[in-house]
Amino acid sequence: WGMPPIDDFVAGLARIPEREFTVPAVARYVADHPVDPGSLERYLFYEPTHYTRNLIYKCDLFELLAVCWEAGQASPVHNHQGHSCWMAAPIGRLAVQNYELLRSDDRGYCELRPTDRVTMDPGNPSFVDPEEPIHSVLNLPEHGQRATSLHVYSRPYDRCLVYAPEKNAYWEVPLFYDSEYGRPTPRAVNASPGPAPGSGARR
After folding, report:
1. What is the pLDDT of residue 189?
2. Where are the alpha helices (H) located in the chain, listed in sequence order?
3. Global pTM?
4. Which has the higher per-residue pLDDT, 194 or 186?
5. Residues 6+ apart with CB under 8 A from 47
6. What is the arrangement of strands in the sheet containing 110-120, beginning at the earlier edge strand?
7. Is the model's pLDDT at 197 over the cut of 80?
8. Quick one: which of 64, 134, 144, 152 could link to 56 by a disulfide (CB 3.0–4.6 Å)?
């Protein structure tokens, strides 16, 4: 049998009962059901100025996004506000760099230390360790190709903390979709050519 199309992948996720929607169970599901990359075409929107967040499915329990990366694009260092995240890379290859939070205060000061870096590709999905949730995702220039990753978030959320390790600083940003259900959002259509200040806001 071949790889399931994205609609079948979503249907299978939606069949997992809420009480069983745990980090290991969903990680197993994602690993066991690699998605046919050809079925993602309507959700793929690449931009030269920033990676894009493209909503495929959303319910109370989880949302599924396709994130599109040109070569050399990377997310800011960020966390998921205590929410779970699972990732797969049906197209291309990505690096996930994890960080340990050494100390922080409630005024935006932090100290981070890089820890392990893992490679994500069609055969190697990943998930965010609840004990060490701060990370960035990178389509390294040497990969020399576009990439698309699938991200399952539970529960859906619309803000996250972004970290600037070189400045020992962090702050909260709102999150936006560049497209929803295969259609560019008005914000994306009307956006100016350059990324907005702090457009780390995209993860």
Report:
1. 54
2. 6-14, 23-32, 186-190
3. 0.91
4. 186
5. 68, 70, 178
6. 110-120, 94-104, 134-138, 77-78, 159-164, 169-174
7. no
8. 64
